[in-house]
């Protein structure tokens, strides 16, 4: 693709300045004739070539970053959240150390082993000093506990269809400002309870609570995105008031 982009750019340059070459007696360079059609096709092909170079370069960068840091994308996300937790929480005096980062050279040699020797048994991996095999596991469990502590309860007041772009049922802005993820959308009925863990302007991410009196298993996913206008937050005061009303 790099070769194609260079050839296309030079050819377009020659065609664009063809009259200039002829005027100055350099007819051997005036070999490209441009019209509207082939000029547009040349620019389009050049854009495709440059886009392919950028996409391939980004892919190579991501792969080499994983090799040098010994982290997958999921592990990078865990490390990012671990460091963010320690910035917000003053109780954590030490920064989180990723246990499998042994230095860029050692990480590189673990992937590109020119002797074709197996490293480890696939279960127990070498870790850096001050860490053990369960350092990352404990951090994941702590993050899940923090996520559970941040969970909010919502009650459905308007049916959610589960459509990806519910313009007709939820409004124009809800249909336009959709989450750019492949997570599913969940269907809700009035009085359904949802445990919400992520909040955006027009969408919420949570898990529907299955009611004890729910006879049949409802179709569709239980966890996913839902329009925020379909639900209202349930506080402890609302629950206690509802309980008192039921008792009367």
Word description of this protein:
The termini are far apart. The chain has 3 domains: 2-69; 73-148, no CATH class; 151-247, SH3 type barrels. It is flat and about 90 Å long. It has 248 residues and is of the alpha+beta class. It has 9 helices and 5 strands. Strands 4-3-2-1-5 form a 5-stranded antiparallel sheet, with no helix packed on it. α4 packs across α6 (135-149).
Question: In a nutshell, what does this entry contain?
Answer:
The chain has helices spanning 2-16, 18-23, 36-69, 73-88, 104-111, 135-149, 167-170, 172-176, 236-247, and strands spanning 152-156, 193-199, 203-209, 223-227, 231-233. It has 248 residues and is of the alpha+beta class. The chain has three domains: 2-69; 73-148, no CATH class; 151-247, SH3 type barrels.
Q: How would you state the average pLDDT, rounded?
A: 83
Strand order of the largest sheet: 4-3-2-1-5
What is the radius of gyration? 29 Å
DSSP summary, beta strand count: 5
How far is the first residue's CA from the last residue's CA? 75 Å
For this structure, the CATH topology of the largest domain is SH3 type barrels
* Main beta sheet: 5 strands, antiparallel
Name the beta content range: 5-15%
Q: Which CATH C-level class of the largest domain is it? A: Mainly Beta
Shape: flat
- Tell me the number of helical segments per DSSP (H or I, 4 or more residues long): 9
Helix content: 40-55%
Domain module tally: 3
Transmembrane segments: 34-55
Keywords: Membrane, Transmembrane, Transmembrane helix
InterPro entries: PFA4/ZDH16/20/ERF2-like
GO molecular function: palmitoyltransferase activity
